[in-house]
């Protein structure tokens, strides 16, 4: 996602912009903001320059597979880059917006999730938010199986439990604002928390990490599902869940 928030004060004398997927406005104190949201590739055209705040979110990484005696880690959340509270001057002109896509979840035996791709802005100002890493399958204990987020927060470690039945849990993927948690006693780790940003006028979390997956060597035991980190946009995919055959990881979010 790319989301520039144009500061318009008053509304008819501020930056004039076009090209977004959608545009909304809100007021805070004596300032009116026009929020231009891009959820697909496009061009931001500034007919008149001025002060802008922005938010970029990279694509989340995909989750890894789980299968016989191995568990899949959750994907890392995409990077979150913003300047909310510190607007910058943008010159008039055309800016190319490329939206980062979520990485594919892994399929097949012993497969890692794919990384997300970057969200970029190119013009007189260039910005980039990289994608999160994919989750990793873990066949040993302990191994770091959760993917690292685009902001550099690490994923969690896998774990193993042998009694009353064998099970392995994958580590949670790192989020844009926090590390993924470790699996414990074969229970999957949770994804790390996403970044909290208020560019839309409300507090919103972006790019949480994906939960770890699980393998259970039992036909009757219930799975222990981990939690994805707060922040759906740009979030990582969760690792696969399976009893016998390979369980696919889920896709990361764009």
Structural shape: elongated
Query: Helix share of residues?
Result: under 10%
Which secondary-structure class do the elements indicate? mainly beta
Largest sheet: 6 strands, antiparallel
**Average pLDDT figure:** 93
Low-pLDDT parts are 7-12
Radius of gyration, rounded? 20 Å
Please describe the structure with a list of short key phrases separated by commas or semicolons:
6-stranded antiparallel sheet, 5-stranded antiparallel sheet, mainly beta
Describe this structure in words.
This protein has 254 residues and is mainly β. Helix content is 0%, strand content 31%. It contains no helices and 19 strands. Strands 1, 3, 4, 6, 8 and 9 form a six-stranded antiparallel beta sheet that branches. Mean pLDDT is 93; it is low at 7-12.
Give me the secondary-structure topology.
Blueprint: E1 2-8, E2 16-18, E3 22-28, E4 31-37, E5 42-48, E6 50-57, E7 71-72, E8 80-82, E9 88-90, E10 93-98, E11 119-122, E12 127-129, E13 137-138, E14 159-161, E15 167-169, E16 195-197, E17 204-206, E18 214-216, E19 241-242
């Amino acid at each position: 996602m790319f989301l520039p928030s144009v500061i318009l004060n008053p509304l008819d004398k501020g930056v004039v912009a076009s090209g977004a997927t959608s545009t909304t406005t809100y007021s805070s104190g004596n300032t009116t903001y026009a929020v231009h949201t891009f959820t697909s590739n496009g061009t931001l055209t500034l007919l008149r320059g001025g002060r802008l705040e922005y938010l970029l979110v990279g694509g989340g990484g995909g989750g890894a597979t789980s299968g016989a005696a191995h568990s899949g880690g959750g994907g890392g959340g995409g990077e979150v880059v913003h300047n909310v509270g510190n607007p910058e001057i943008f010159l008039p002109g055309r800016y190319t917006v490329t939206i980062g896509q979520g990485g594919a979840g892994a399929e097949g035996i012993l497969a890692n999730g794919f990384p997300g791709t970057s969200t970029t802005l190119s013009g007189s100002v260039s910005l980039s938010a990289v994608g999160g890493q994919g989750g990793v399958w873990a066949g040993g204990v302990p191994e770091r199986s959760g993917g690292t987020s685009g902001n550099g927060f690490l994923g969690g470690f896998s774990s193993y439990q042998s009694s009353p039945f064998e099970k392995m849990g994958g580590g949670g993927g790192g989020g844009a604002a926090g590390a993924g948690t470790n699996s414990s006693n074969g229970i999957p780790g949770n994804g790390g928390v996403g970044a909290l940003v208020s560019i839309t006028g409300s507090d919103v979390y972006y790019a949480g990490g994906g939960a770890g997956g699980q393998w259970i060597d039992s036909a009757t035991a219930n799975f222990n599902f981990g939690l994805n980190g707060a922040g759906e946009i740009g979030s990582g995919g969760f690792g696969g869940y399976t009893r016998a055959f390979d369980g696919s990881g889920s896709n990361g979010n764009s």
